[in-house]
Amino acid sequence: MAIDAASVKELRSATGAGILDCKVALEESDGDFDKAVEYLKKKSQATAVKKQSRDAKDGKIATYVHGEGRIGVLVEVNSETDFVARSEPFTEFVKEVCLQVAAMAPVAVTREELPEAEVAKQKEIFAAQMEGQKKPPEIIEKILEGKMNKWFKEVCLMDQVYIRDDSKTVQDMLTDVIGKCAENIRIRRFVRYELGEGL
Hints:
- This protein is an alpha+beta fold and about 200 residues long.
- The protein folds into 3 domains: about 5-50, Ubiquitin-associated (UBA) domain (Helicase, Ruva Protein, domain 3); about 60-110 and about 155-195, Tetrahydropterin Synthase, Chain A, CATH 3.30.479; about 115-155, no CATH class.
- The protein is built from 8 helices and 3 strands, in the order H-H-H-E-E-H-H-H-H-H-E.
- The chain is globular.
């Protein structure tokens, strides 16, 4: 099937993928736009998995101040090269991470970074809330697991729902940008300050 330039341009505009990738995606999908988008997503995820083992020591530290100085965010996002760190998709991604941290106040980047004591304490709280329920232990364990997963989605940046698109998580955004930049990218750390916090 012959793919016209307008279709390639439209797909590129929607996904940010390269021209050749868009052409191949449309050819593989028999010109079906939605199938081509799905094809590119899968390719992007496969690329992300391959790239994640590579070192990412370059990148960018970015700041964001919100609400006339009420909230401040400092974020470090790493890439493999300074070339990618200066690219538009990377820069846009870093801005979005800053906005996400400001809006959603995560505690850690990943589940693995949460202190074990904090995770254990939260599990105890949920278990205490369920005491006295007449349900089999395996059902209580499943409910407890569900509550913990919901909590992780609140406190871990990578598990959080993306503030601009609730069909995506921050992890999905990261996978997309790795696919676009063809390099390993990782959110290394962040700090969030809120005026009067802890007083």
